[in-house]
Amino acid sequence: MAEIAGFGVTSDAFHLVQPHKEGLGATKAMKMAIEGAGLDIKDIDYINAHGTSTPTNDRIKNNGDQEFIW
Question: Which domain holds residue 61?
Answer without folding.
Answer: 24-41+50-69
